[in-house]
Design goal:
The protein is of the alpha+beta class and about 220 residues long. The chain contains 5 helices and 8 strands, in the order αβββββββαααβα. The strands form 2 sheets. Strands 1, 2, 5, 6 and 7 form a 5-stranded antiparallel beta sheet that branches.
Length: about 220
């Protein structure tokens, strides 16, 4: 009797362990069938919080994509470059916009003719916005660092050249935009936009002129 009881207990334990193994097999994806134990991820929607509203009064008349090269070499006097110094070549790409600020318009910015057929609009000249450096398209082409610089980067956990290269790249992007036809293109696009708008309002002749932003206020 004891032997039969022991055998029965062994069978029960064996079945119990086999059941656990089956459940574990199913939960871990051992079966290709849809498992009732499969994991699920749910995201609970939360109401959005309005932080701030702003009136948009700046018209981006044109934008340009520019690429500049920053070649920077730093050294320490009387110390070899392999000990202290670095040389980095950075290709930077970014966007600069030409913006017309309508918030500065004075009362006489829009003048219509007595017969209501023509209109003259006086606007501030487009100004160039801050360069927006595209970090995904910008890259360091080459870089050589001295031993001291490498140790400093390893200790700080950051590269000491990044911020300086980015600032230099932004200045060069702004200079490239200023030397381009971006402002002229911005004026042309704004004139085309306002001409179409005024024509839709019934004006047959539309004249758009540009003055210094300070004079437009």
């Amino acid at each position: 009797m004891r032997r039969a009881s022991g055998t029965a207990s062994g069978i029960v334990i064996g079945l119990f362990m086999a059941g656990i193994a089956v459940v574990a097999f199913v939960v871990t994806g051992g079966l290709s069938l849809r498992s009732p134990f499969r994991s699920q991820t749910k995201y609970r929607d939360q109401s959005a919080l309005l932080v701030k509203l702003r009136n948009v009064s700046r018209y981006e008349a044109a934008s340009g994509q520019f690429q500049v090269l920053v070649d920077r070499q730093r050294s320490t006097k009387y110390i070899p470059s392999w000990i202290s110094g670095d040389h980095a070549t950075f290709v930077a790409e970014g966007e600069v916009g030409a913006v017309v600020d309508f918030s500065t318009l004075g009362k006489g910015a829009v003048k219509t003719s007595p017969d209501g057929k023509s209109v003259t609009v006086t606007l501030p000249k487009p100004t160039l916005g801050k360069p927006q450096l595209d970090l995904d398209k910008s890259r360091v082409m080459s870089e050589n660092k001295g031993l001291v610089n490498r140790v400093d980067d390893a200790v700080s956990g950051t590269s000491s050249h990044d911020q300086d290269l980015y600032q230099t790249a932004n200045r060069k992007l702004a200079r490239a935009a200023a030397q381009s036809e971006l402002v002229t293109r911005g004026e042309a696009n704004t004139t085309t936009m306002l001409t179409g708008l005024m024509n839709s309002l019934g004006y047959h002749e539309v004249h758009v002129s540009y003055v210094d932003p300070a004079a437009a206020a």
